[in-house]
Design a protein that fits this description.
The structure holds 2 protein chains of 2 kinds. Chain A is of the alpha+beta class. Chain A has 17 helices and 8 strands. The chains are: A alpha+beta, B alpha/beta.
Chain lengths: 393, 139
C-alpha cells in the first residue's frame, strides 16, 4: 500500500496560528505525524539581552497573548531569584489573582476552540460569551483586556483598589454560576462524551517519557503542578486542589480544564477577600540586580513555564532563556496521534492546547545560502592545491 | 470599478492571516464573532479561504519565514482586496525592531490599506476600522 500524506497548514481555516503538520495515513488511520514550526519565531531571547530588566518584562509579555502573564511572572521570579528579593504581601495576592484569572480565560478559550474543532459551535459561543466577564475583570483591574502589564521586579504595577472589589466579586459570582452550568452541561452531554471519550489517549508512561506538563500531564494521571510543588507568590496561602484524572484521552483533558476553572475561581475569591484587608505597599523598590543566575517557574494555563536569567550586574540580562510548556507538550503528538482516524487527529492536536508563539524560541539555520562548511576538508583541499602549484601536477 | 466597489461595500467577507503575532490580535478577531460583538449582524463574516474574501486581516510582525507565504496568500486573493493591519506589530514593529528575524518593511510584502494600532486593539476599534472602510468604499 502506498503511503499517503495529508498536509495541514501553514494557513489552514482551523489553525489560528501558522504551523504545518504532515499526517501520514494508511486508509483512514494516521500512522505517523511530522510537523514544521518556525513561522512564529521573532527572537525574543535575543532582543531581551539588549533591553533593561523592566523592558524585558514588557517584551516577554508579548511572547504569547493568551498566557500573557505567565511569561512576565516567570521572568520576574527569575530576576527576583538572583537577589532573593522579597515581595510585599499585597503584591503576592495580586499576582496570584491575575495569574488565576488568566487561567480561567485561557481554559475557556480552549474549551470554545475545542468545541469549534469538533463541530460543536454552541459550546464555542457559550464558552466565549462567558469569557467576556473575565476580560471585563481584567479591564477593571489593569486597564487592558489582554496584555495586562502588571508584573514588576519586587511587586506589581497597579493596586486593586478596595472600592473595586465588591464589583469584581459580583462578576465572579456570575462566572461561577455559568461555569457550573457549562461543567454540568459538558458532563451530561452524550454527544460530547461519545465524540471525545477514548480519543487520542496519552498513556501515563508516554506522558512521563515525553515530559508532558500541565493539564496534558494531569489528564494522564500525573500529579504535577508548580503551584503545589514549589509554591510562590500567594499559592501557599490559599486553599485549592489540583485536578488529576487517569485516562489521558481528550475528554479527560476537557474535564481537567473545566474543573480547574472552578478551582481557579476558588483561588480568585480567596485573593479578593484577602485584598480587602491585607495592607501595605505593592512594590518594593529594587535599585540594582547583582551578578548571578536565577530561574523562575510558574504554572501557566498550559503547564510549567521556565525562565532562566543571567545577570552581570548591569541593568540588562546577559542571557535570557525561555522554555514554554507547549515545547514539551507538542511532541506528545507522536504518542497520542498514531493509530487514530484522521477525523480524530485534529482534536487530538488541539487537545494539548498548543501555543506555537510560546514554543518557537530557538532558530536553527540549515544551509542558509551557503554550503555545509567542513573545515577539515577545506584545510586539506588547500594543502592539496598548494602541493599541486608547487610540484606542478 | 464603481459598481464593483459598491457591491463590495454591502457585506464584507474577511479572511484572517497571522504573520508571527503573539496570538492576542487573532483571539480578539475571533472574539468579534462571538455573542458580545457578533459582527455577522453587519454582514462581516470570517471565511475559510482567501479566495472568498474581500478583506484580509493581517496580524503580527512578519518574520522571514512567513513573509513569502503572506505574499502568496495576497497573490491568491481575488482583486480588489483590502488589507487591514491589526495591531501595533503590523502597524509599527512593537518591541521587535531589533530582531534579526523580522521583515523591516511590511508594506513591501503586501500593500496595506487600513492600520488599526493597539496592543491588542479593542474589538470596537476593529469594527470601527472595517465600518470606516465600508464608508470609504461607499464614497
Amino acid at each position: 500500500m502506498t503511503e499517503n500524506k495529508i498536509p495541514v497548514g501553514p494557513f489552514h481555516p482551523l489553525l489560528e496560528e501558522a504551523e504545518y503538520f504532515e499526517l501520514k495515513v494508511e486508509g483512514e488511520m494516521v500512522v505517523d505525524i511530522d510537523m514544521e514550526i518556525g513561522w512564529m519565531h521573532r527572537g525574543h531571547e535575543f532582543i531581551s539581552e539588549s533591553k533593561a530588566f523592566t523592558q524585558s518584562i514588557y517584551l516577554v509579555e508579548r511572547i504569547c497573548g493568551i498566557c500573557s502573564t505567565s511569561h512576565p511572572l516567570a521572568c520576574v521570579h527569575a530576576i527576583e531569584d538572583i537577589d532573593n528579593i522579597e515581595i510585599p504581601m499585597r503584591a503576592r495576592y495580586i499576582r496570584t489573582l491575575i495569574g488565576e484569572l488568566e487561567r480561567v480565560h485561557s481554559h475557556l478559550l480552549w474549551l470554545g476552540l475545542a468545541g469549534h474543532f469538533i463541530g460543536y459551535d454552541t459550546l464555542w459561543m457559550w464558552a466565549w460569551k462567558y469569557r467576556e466577564p473575565v476580560l471585563e475583570m481584567f479591564e477593571a483591574i489593569s486597564g487592558n483586556r489582554n496584555h495586562y502589564g502588571m508584573m514588576r521586579v519586587g511587586g506589581v504595577a497597579k493596586d486593586v483598589e478596595s472600592e473595586k472589589i465588591p464589583h469584581l466579586l459580583q462578576i465572579l459570582d456570575e462566572i461561577d454560576r455559568k461555569m457550573e452550568m457549562i461543567a454540568k452541561a459538558a458532563h451530561d452531554d452524550p454527544v460530547l462524551k461519545s465524540r471525545l471519550k477514548g480519543v487520542g489517549v496519552l498513556k501515563k508512561a508516554d506522558a512521563i517519557a515525553y515530559c508532558a506538563v500541565g493539564p496534558t500531564a494531569r489528564a494522564s494521571g500525573l500529579a504535577i503542578d508548580v503551584r503545589k510543588d514549589e509554591p510562590s507568590d500567594a499559592y501557599d496561602l490559599v486553599d485549592f486542589n489540583i485536578v488529576v484524572l487517569p485516562n489521558g484521552d481528550v475528554y479527560d483533558k476537557l474535564v481537567v480544564r473545566l474543573l480547574e476553572i472552578i478551582e481557579s475561581n476558588k483561588i480568585i475569591r480567596q485573593c479578593l477577600e484577602q485584598l480587602k484587608t491585607v495592607p501595605g505597599p505593592i512594590l518594593n523598590n529594587v535599585k540594582e540586580i547583582t551578578p548571578g543566575e536565577g530561574i523562575g517557574r510558574y504554572e501557566a494555563p498550559r503547564g510549567e513555564v521556565f525562565h532562566y536569567i543571567k545577570s552581570d550586574g548591569t541593568n540588562r540580562p546577559v542571557r535570557h532563556k525561555v522554555r514554554a510548556p507547549s515545547y514539551v507538550n507538542i511532541p506528545t503528538f507522536m504518542a497520542s496521534c498514531k493509530g487514530i482516524p484522521v477525523a480524530d487527529a485534529l482534536i487530538t492536536l488541539a487537545a494539548v492546547d498548543p501555543c506555537y508563539c510560546c514554543t518557537e524560541r530557538a532558530l536553527r539555520v540549515v544551509n542558509a545560502g551557503s554550503e555545509h562548511l567542513d573545515l577539515l576538508a577545506l584545510s586539506r583541499a588547500k594543502t592539496e592545491q598548494l602541493r599541486r602549484e608547487i610540484y606542478g601536477k | 470599478m464603481g459598481w464593483y466597489k459598491r457591491r463590495l461595500a454591502k457585506s464584507l467577507w474577511v479572511f484572517h492571516v497571522s504573520g508571527s503575532p503573539c496570538n492576542n490580535c487573532d483571539i480578539e478577531i475571533l472574539d468579534l464573532l462571538t455573542p458580545k460583538y457578533d459582527v455577522e449582524r453587519f454582514g462581516i463574516k470570517l471565511v475559510g479561504s482567501v479566495r472568498h474574501a474581500d478583506v484580509l486581516l493581517v496580524t503580527g510582525v512578519f518574520n522571514q519565514k512567513i513573509a513569502p507565504r503572506i505574499k502568496r496568500i495576497y497573490e491568491q486573493a481575488p482583486k480588489p482586496i483590502f488589507v487591514v493591519a491589526i495591531g501595533t506589530c503590523t502597524s509599527g514593529t512593537c518591541c521587535f525592531k531589533d530582531s534579526y528575524n523580522i521583515v523591516p518593511d511590511r508594506e513591501a510584502v503586501i500593500p496595506i490599506d487600513v492600520y488599526v494600532p493597539g496592543c491588542p486593539p479593542k474589538p470596537e476599534a476593529m469594527i470601527e476600522a472595517v465600518a470606516k472602510l465600508i464608508g470609504v468604499l461607499n464614497g
